[in-house]
Design a protein that fits this description.
Blueprint: E1 11-13, E2 23-25, H1 27-37, E3 58-59, E4 62-66, E5 74-80, E6 85-90, E7 93-94, E8 105-106, E9 108-113, E10 116-118, E11 125-127, E12 133-139, E13 142-151, E14 154-159, E15 162-163, E16 171-176, E17 182-183
Parallel strand pairs: 9-16
Antiparallel strand pairs: 1-2, 3-13, 4-5, 4-17, 5-6, 6-7, 6-8, 9-12, 10-11, 12-13, 13-14, 14-15
């Protein structure tokens, strides 16, 4: 459902955030919009591949992604071995759950390079999430270079043509124009 099209009807704006990041929809309105558009709310989706072995590769306890030189566009992940999770920071501020205020813990940090094209004078971009490409998968404080593919709308990591399994837990996908803005 397009939040711009349904702004003020299915989607409502809140005052505690600034536009355009203040538009929300309730589950009741998701169901209403889906019925209006003829969308299915249930479908069979193949499960993602999960790994049972420990990842092997280069140590990566800290990840830096510099989307630009502006502070707000610099992202960092720090690995906590005792929790087998990465904690995310944006502009130096830890990313937390809005409701619980608990830090977000991420088990898989997937970074993919995708072609970016500026499409207008406002700087908006068209990003190619279809063609696939190269990337990095960070798990358990280890980094592995991967190739990524779009499989039925899902961005998935591959190595030598075979799917790479995820660690159980949360996966955060970072889309970058070039992998050389990623350091660890």
């Amino acid at each position: 459902l397009n939040g711009l099209f349904y702004d003020g009807t299915l989607f409502k704006r809140v005052s505690f955030r600034t536009a355009p990041h203040n538009s929300y929809i309730t589950f009741a309105n998701i169901k209403k919009g889906a019925a209006e558009k003829g969308y299915l709310l249930q479908d069979h989706i193949d499960p993602l591949p999960f790994r049972i072995d420990a990842p092997k590769g280069e140590q990566a306890d800290k990840i830096d992604i510099m989307y630009s030189h502006r502070g707000y566009a610099q992202v960092q992940y720090k690995y906590a071995p005792d929790q087998k999770s990465y904690f995310r920071y944006s502009a130096g501020e830890q990313t937390i759950d809005y409701d619980t205020h608990d830090p977000i813990q991420i088990q898989n940090v997937l970074v993919i390079a995708a072609k970016h094209n500026v499409i207008d004078s406002s700087g908006r971009r068209s990003i190619d999430l279809v063609s696939g490409g190269s990337g990095y998968l960070f798990q358990n404080g280890i980094v592995k270079q991967i190739e990524w593919e779009n499989v039925n709308g899902r961005i998935l990591p591959y190595e030598n043509g075979a799917p790479v399994g995820f660690m159980p837990g949360k996966t955060w996908i970072n889309v970058v124009p070039d992998l050389n803005i990623v350091k660890w």
